[in-house]
Design brief:
By secondary structure, the protein is mainly alpha-helical. The chain is 77% helix and 0% strand.
């Protein structure tokens, strides 16, 4: 009995939960010191960041391109707003379809795993024990951990999904969240280059400075959730966006002169 109890305690430490599903009351000492991790699986961060960057770069490049072609300020505004609307709707539709397809695939695979747990529970339990043994857990302890985890079918499904599929069934990304995040962030980013023209500017310089500043700020904000320094990330985005604007401006000048 003492051996089984110690196995149970060790198993709880391995999975981080007690067997009734509640959090382990004795976390690792690092976690007692407010050791926390940032959310790396959120469904909104990637599309929001990508949308803002894409909106800034694509609309800045579009506006500098038509400005290089020596068009009227009114044409620049129409072009910029059309680019904003088209890009935002395209981003939202693409993100929704992509995330929805991914979610449907994961749900289908979870259903396969659920059926396997229902039809062949002993085989799945042995599979889980073998997985823990492959990670260096003692054979008897691994078997006991797998046995206790398999008591609750939903907990067993969650464990198998994490270990075999690398997903958390309770934290799947939302297609709607991804679509709304990408739409709003793209529109906000794309608005910056055209905003000075909406306010009456007839020069490219204010739009260029505002957009480049926005790129630097976006890069610096991204650094908050990465290991990069804020200035490195900000400068990287500024240089990439500036390069795209420079190329399209040159193309605008070239084609404007040729077609004019």
């Amino acid at each position: 009995m003492t051996m089984i109890a110690s196995m149970g305690d060790a198993a709880q430490r391995i999975v981080g939960r007690t067997f009734d599903g509640s959090p382990n009351p004795t976390p690792h000492s690092a976690h007692r010191d407010n050791h926390t991790h940032r959310d790396v699986n959120g469904g909104w961060l990637r599309p929001a960041v990508f949308g803002a960057m894409d909106g800034l770069v694509s609309n800045l490049a579009l506006i500098t391109g038509v400005t290089g072609g020596a068009v009227a300020p009114g044409t620049i505004v129409i072009t910029g707003m059309a680019g904003l609307a088209a890009g935002a709707f395209s981003m939202a539709a693409g993100e929704y379809t992509s995330v929805a397809s991914q979610r449907e695939l994961v749900l289908a695979e979870l259903e396969v795993e659920r059926q396997e747990l229902r039809r062949h529970p002993q085989d799945e339990q042995r599979e889980l024990a073998e997985l823990y043994r492959s990670r260096g857990v003692d054979a008897d302890l691994a078997a006991e951990v797998a046995r206790q985890l398999s008591h609750d079918p939903e907990q067993a499904l969650e464990i198998h999904a994490r270990e075999e599929l690398g997903v958390d069934p309770s934290d799947l990304p939302s297609p709607l969240v991804a679509a709304v995040s990408s739409f709003g962030s793209f529109a906000l980013g794309a608005l910056l280059p055209v905003l000075p023209f909406l306010l009456g500017s007839v020069s490219l310089l204010p739009a260029l400075l505002l957009a480049l500043a926005g790129l630097f700020v976006c890069g610096a904000v991204v650094a908050k959730v990465t290991a990069r320094s804020w200035w490195y990330s900000g400068l990287r985005q500024l240089l990439l966006g500036g390069a795209a604007a420079g190329v399209t401006y040159g193309l605008g000048v070239l084609f404007g002169t040729t077609l004019g």
